[in-house]
Every structure is written in C-alpha cells, then in structure tokens.
Amino acid sequence: MTHRIAVIAGDGAGPEVIAEARKAVDALGLDLEWNELPWGTEHFHAHGTMMPADALDTARAHDAILLGAVGHPSVPDHITLWGLLLRLRQGLDLYANLRPARLLDGVPSLLSGRPRVDMLFVRENTEGEYSGVGGRAHEGLELEVGIETSVFTRAGVRRVVERAFELAEQRRGVLTSATKSNASRYGYVLWDEVVEEVHASHPDVTVERVLVDALAARMVSNPASLDVVVASNLFGDILTDVAAVLQGGMGMAASASVGAGPIAMFEPVHGSAPDIAGQGIANPLGAIWSAALMLQHLGEDDAHQRLMRAIEAVCRDRVLTRDLGGRATTREVGDAVVARL
Ligand code: NAD
Ligand code: IPM
Ligand code: MN
To answer: What value does the mean pLDDT take over residues 238-256?
Structure first.
C-alpha cells in the first residue's frame, strides 16, 4: 500500500532540512507518495492565514505529515504557530510528542567526560500550559491584564502518562515524571496523582517524581541517570531544547507527534533558524532522524533501521555541519546519508 505523506516544509531553514530528509527517504525505494502543502508564512502573506480552512481534513487524508519548521520575523510568532503547528497538534489530537535524545558516536559532547545520553522525552502535546485558554482585558490601558490559563484534564494527563509507561517498559523500565507541584498546587498535583494511578497497572516500572528545576540541573550534571521522561507541554518543550544540546545541538533533535489514530506528524525539534536560514549550513540530521521515526510509524521497520544506521555512520565518519564542529553543508550531509544507504 502506498504511504501518502504530506510535506509542510515551512519557513526559513525548514525547506532546506526537509529536502535532505526527503532525499534520504526516496533513496530507500519505498512505495511512497509526497504531497507538498505550501503552508506557512508565504501562505499567510498571500491569503491571510497560515493554512487553508480545510487544512485538518487535508492532513487527515494522509498517513503522516513531515514538517520542517514555521516562523518568520515578518509575522508575530503567536500568529504563526497558533495558525499552523499548534492547530495541527491540537486539531489532529496528537497528544504525545516523542523526542529521543541520543548522543551518537562522532558527535562532540558539550559535557566533560562525555557522559552517556540516551533519553526519550514524552511531552504532553495538546493541553497544559499550551491549552490556548486566556485573554486580555483593558487593552492598551495602564490596567491591561494578560491571562494565560493552564488546563490539565485527568483524561489528557492519563493518556500521555500511559504512553510513557508503555515506552519505559520497552526500554530500561525507568520513568521520570517532571513536575512542579510544590509551587503550582492544582494542575501538577493532579498530574502527580495520575502518575501514581497509572503506575499501579505498571508495577514493573520504577517511577521517580522530580521537580522540574532539579531535573533541568540533573540533565546536565548526570544525564546517564535518565531514561524515559514524561513532562507537561511547556516543561517538555524547555527540557527538550536542553536535551538537544546534550546530543550535540538543536540540529540533531527529532520528534514525533502521535495520537490514538493513524495520522502522526514528524518534525525536527528546532525552529526556522532565521539566523542561518538560506546559507545551506543548517544541520539536516534532526529532520532526517524525524523521517526515520516516520518510517517506523508507517510500519517500515527495515527502512527505519537502515536510515538510523546511515545517520549513525555519517556521524561516526564526522560528515558534520559547522554547529557540530564540521565543515559540511546541509546538502553534503544529506548526500552522505544517501551514500551510506
Ligand atoms: P531555532 O531552533 O530556530 O534556533 C535556535 C538556535 O539553534 C539558532 O542559533 C539556530 O541557528 C540554531 N539551529 C536551529 N536549527 C538548526 C539546525 N538545523 N542546524 C544548526 N543550527 C540550528 O529557535 P528560535 O530562534 O527560538 O526560533 C526561530 C523561529 O522558529 C521562531 O519564529 C520560532 O517561533 C520558530 N520555531 C518553530 C518551531 C517549529 O516550527 N517546530 C520550533 C521552534 C521554534
Ligand atoms: C517545539 C516548538 C514549539 C513548541 C513552538 C514553536 C510553538 O518550540 O516544537 O518545541 O513549543 O511546541
Ligand atoms: Mn521547542
């Protein structure tokens, strides 16, 4: 059966890294069809919206979405992201954002002693601090107020926590839950209670609850002590940028947004990188790794393995972009991956 893939290359460095991810997937010779969706900031300037009104239906007609990044200095970020990325995650109910962080051989470590880094973040992806609930009153006046409300639902927390337990069972049987239930006494306390409840049906998994500030410190002081980490939307966002640096840099990190249904979205963790966009120097490995996660999701296990082995070989051979201390261009890294396939 042909896999139908929607491609949203997006803005800035997005199209540059997605071109390499597509090239790598094409080299695997699968029965796969790309459908380029020209959504993003250019669409906004032409039509006043980041994507068409029927975008969610269009997306659902595919097996997966491969996304580069969106965000451009010409449009306020909250318009851009709520008009596309967050709308897709919420509208398609992709409630878990899986973000592996593994330091590959050949990639320089920023920590002395090169400690082992092999974590999997399971980030809540549709509610919490990013629920989009809030508003502003007294606009423009001295007494103006901005309110941003975090929404934690029992069902919403449970489904992502269950996913994290299942993944912990497939790995080392250790789950760390990021929380802040000392200062925030409602949402994160509910979160902690749900973790305890779900733990009861996964007694083989060792769970630890770590306050997010201490967890951030531990990620850099003792990364080898962490395996699967489950976190709220905002905490997961922040911690996974730290994790990206632990695996070499922003350009290395991959992610999968998954839900209960078949459709899922795959994207590097980084943004549109306006500071380096258009120069052909963005690291494409996070995007290529995301494409590898996509192949796994599509049931193409052999292709997934082959692509991961090629990424590892390219790193071992140190064909790296300058963010990792190398001299290769975006395209040269993509070509090197293809050569090793
Ligand atoms: P960013 O991830 O784009 O950039 C942060 C730093 O990492 C920059 O120095 C950049 O050069 C570097 N970097 C990022 N990707 C890289 C790559 N592939 N190779 C080498 N270096 C890389 O984050 P930002 O600067 O905070 O955001 C820029 C824009 O992207 C904003 O509009 C933001 O809202 C948007 N954004 C979008 C997504 C997304 O679409 N998934 C994610 C994050 C940020
Ligand atoms: C990410 C990004 C997004 C997020 C932004 C662009 C809304 O930073 O995917 O990590 O915070 O989810
Ligand atoms: Mn982020």
So the answer is: 98
